[in-house]
TrEMBL record:
Family assignment from sequence similarity: Belongs to the pirin family.
Co-factor(s): Fe cation
All residue ranges annotated as the Pirin N-terminal domain in the record: 44-148
Keyword line: Iron, Metal-binding
Cofactor binding note of this UniProt entry: Binds 1 Fe cation per subunit.
Pfam families: Pirin, Pirin_C
Binding site for Fe cation: 82, 84, 126, 128
GO molecular function, one term: metal ion binding
Protein name: Pirin
Domain Pirin C-terminal: 204-304
PANTHER family assigned to the protein according to its UniProt record, in alphabetical order: PIRIN (PTHR13903:SF8), PIRIN-RELATED (PTHR13903)
Length: 316
C-alpha cells in the first residue's frame, strides 16, 4: 500500500506564508549521494548518511532507504535476530509490509506510513522480516530505517516499543496546497507528530507536486537534513539540484526551502545535537570503547535478551 495520503489536501491545515525578507532560510552545507548496498538477509538499501561527518548528523547515527524494490515470489527478505544498545531504531514503511518482533514481546506489522519505534536503551534483541504471505506472493517494498542517538544519561534506560499507525501522523499542506507533509515526530509549525522521543527531533515525510515550493519553518537550535526518496528538484537558498538518493545537510537558519521539478518525495529530519562522544560499532552506539566492549560481552552472555521460542504472527 502507498504512503498515507488524502483526497483533497486543501482541507488540511496550512503552513504559514514566510516573508522572504524577514526569514533566514537555511543554505545547503553539504550534498551527498548515498551508495547502494545490501542489508540483513540481502535486501537492497541506500546508505543515506555515508560520507557525512557525524557532527552534521547529530543526533542521528544512520539512515537506510530500503528499496524501492518489486520482489518476485519467494524473494522478499528481512533481518535475522540481532541486538541493539544505546539508541533508538525508527522503521517507517511506505510500500509493502514489515513484521517486527523483539525479545521483550513487542511486535506487529507496519505498512502504509506506519512506524515501528524501538528504544533499545540498555539492550534488546529484535528481527524485522516480511510476513509469510508476502514472501509467497512477492510485491513492492519501500521504507526507511533511522537510528536516533540517546544521550549518555538515557543510554541504559529500559527498552520500549512504540507502534505508530500512519493515520496518527499530523497532516499539513503548504499555503498553495502543492505539498503534503506527514509529521511523524516532533513539532512542525505548531503541529506535533505522534512519536515519543527522548532526544528532541522532528521527522516528516513530504510529497511535493511538480513546480511546488516548500517553505518549512524549522527550530533554530535543530540541525536540518533533507533526503530525496524519489523525484528531483532544488534545495536551499542557493537552489542546489537534488535527486533520488541524495542528502542535503543545512547550515543555520529559521526555515528550509525546497522546490520540486518533478513529483518529489522527501524525508526531512532535524534535532538538537547531543554533542557527546560517540563510540559506534555494529549494533551498538555508546560513548566510550569500554562501553562498547561491555555491550558485546553482555550480548554474548545473554544479558540483552532471549530469542522467543515462537514468532509473533502477522496481524493487520
Amino acid at each position: 500500500m502507498p504512503a498515507i495520503t488524502v483526497d483533497d489536501v486543501l482541507v488540511l491545515p496550512r503552513l504559514p506564508r514566510l516573508d522572504p525578507v524577514m526569514t533566514e532560510f537555511r543554505d545547503v552545507k553539504r550534498l551527498t549521494t548515498a551508495p547502494q548496498g545490501y542489508e540483513g538477509e540481502g535486501f537492497p538499501v541506500r546508505r543515506a548518511f555515508a560520507g557525512v561527518p557525524t557532527t552534521e548528523l547529530d543526533p542521528f547515527i544512520h539512515l537506510d532507504q530500503m528499496g524501492s524494490v518489486d520482489y518476485g515470489p519467494g524473494e522478499p527478505k528481512g533481518t535475522p535476530w540481532h541486538p541493539h544498545r544505546g539508541f533508538e531504531t525508527v522503521t517507517y514503511m511506505i510500500d509493502g509490509i514489515m513484521d517486527h518482533q523483539d525479545s521483550l514481546g513487542g511486535g506487529g506489522s507496519i505498512s502504509n506510513s506506519d512506524t515501528q519505534w524501538m528504544t533499545a536503551g540498555s539492550g534488546i534483541l529484535h528481527l524485522e522480516a516480511p510476513p509469510e504471505h508476502l514472501v509467497m506472493s512477492g510485491g513492492l517494498f519501500h521504507g526507511l530505517q533511522l537510528w536516533v542517538n540517546l544521550p549518555r544519561a538515557a543510554k541504559m534506560i529500559d527498552p520500549k516499543y512504540q507502534d505508530i499507525r500512519g493515520k496518527a501522523a499530523a497532516l499539513l499542506t503548504t499555503a498553495d496546497g502543492g505539498a503534503l507533509i506527514r509529521v511523524i515526530a516532533g513539532t512542525v509549525a505548531g503541529h506535533s507528530g505522534p512519536g515519543s522521543t527522548f532526544t528532541p527531533i522532528n521527522l516528516a515525510h513530504v510529497t511535493m507536486q511538480p513546480g511546488a515550493r516548500l517553505d518549512l519553518p524549522w527550530q533554530t537550535d535543530y540541525n536540518a537534513l533533507v533526503y530525496a526518496l524519489s523525484g528531483d528538484g532544488w534545495v536551499g537558498t542557493g537552489m542546489r539540484p537534488i535527486t533520488l538518493g541524495q542528502l542535503a545537510t543545512h547550515g543555520p537558519g529559521e526555515a528550509i526551502r525546497v522546490e520540486a521539478r518533478t513529483e518529489l518525495d522527501l524525508f526531512i529530519m532535524g534535532g538538537q545535537p547531543i554533542r557527546e562522544p560517540i563510540a559506534h560499532y555494529g549494533p551498538f552506539v555508546m560513548n566510550t570503547r569500554d562501553e562498547l566492549k561491555q555491550a558485546f560481552e553482555d550480548y554474548q552472555k545473554g544479558r540483552l535478551g532471549v530469542i522467543p521460542a515462537t514468532r509473533v504472527p502477522h496481524t493487520d
